[in-house]
């Protein structure tokens, strides 16, 4: 049962007393140097397996072949050594697809073109430009800034809405008083 590697591992670890059945015996893998229970989580598990099968066949049987430990039943519970549960691999379950996975949303850019709406002429109706700017920002829930003496720029293309919104807000401006200049460079 005690191979050379095992004896060395024990001496280096907890210096077990001789002639005593030592329940805290930890076996280290000669390939990855971790306790052999963890080998199965290593990326080069094949090498670990080969090493273990060759050097510690009884451990190999317990860990990989599901053989019962001679020290106790394979209850699947954490044993006296505080090891991970036997058959740990079986406990790592892949989440079922039917379980709720949470909701994600994303904004997807469809078009690189971005528009702003420029409004001029409100001041000619004695409308306070700052008040108008705030109104547009609230109404369209977007940025609006005063860019000139009688010019407001609203982020986004709201030109169609302007025909409804402006006469509604300022009855002195009729829909016919609004001229859509179309696409402008600035
Ligand atoms: Zn290993």
TrEMBL record:
Stored InterPro entries: DENR/SUI1_TIF (IPR050318), DENR_C (IPR046447), DENR_eukaryotes (IPR005873), DENR_N (IPR048517), SUI1 (IPR001950), SUI1_dom_sf (IPR036877)
Entry keyword Protein biosynthesis: yes
Stored CDD domains: DENR_C
Record carries keyword Oxidoreductase: no
SUPFAM superfamilies, alphabetized: eIF1-like
Example GO molecular function: translation initiation factor activity
Pfam families referenced in this protein's UniProt entry, alphabetically: DENR_N (PF21023), SUI1 (PF01253)
Keywords assigned by UniProt, alphabetized: Initiation factor, Protein biosynthesis
Family: Belongs to the DENR family.
Listed name of the protein: Density-regulated protein
Organism (species): Branchiostoma floridae
């Amino acid at each position: 049962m005690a191979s050379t590697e095992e004896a060395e591992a024990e001496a280096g670890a907890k210096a077990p007393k001789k002639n005593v059945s030592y329940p805290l015996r930890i076996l280290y893998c000669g390939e990855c140097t971790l306790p052999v229970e963890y080998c199965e989580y290593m990326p080069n598990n094949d090498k670990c397996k080969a090493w273990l099968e060759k050097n510690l066949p009884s451990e190999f049987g317990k860990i990989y072949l599901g053989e019962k430990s001679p020290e106790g039943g394979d209850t699947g519970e954490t044993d006296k050594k505080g090891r991970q549960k036997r058959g740990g691999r079986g406990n790592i379950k892949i989440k079922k697809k039917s379980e709720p996975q949470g909701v994600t949303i994303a904004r997807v850019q469809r078009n690189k073109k971005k528009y702003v709406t420029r409004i001029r002429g409100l001041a000619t109706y004695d409308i306070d430009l700052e008040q108008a700017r705030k109104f547009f920002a609230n109404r369209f829930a977007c940025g609006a800034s005063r860019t000139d003496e009688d010019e407001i720029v609203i982020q986004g293309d709201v030109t169609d809405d302007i025909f409804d919104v402006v006469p509604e807000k300022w009855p002195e401006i009729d829909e016919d008083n609004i001229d859509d200049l179309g696409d402008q460079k600035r």
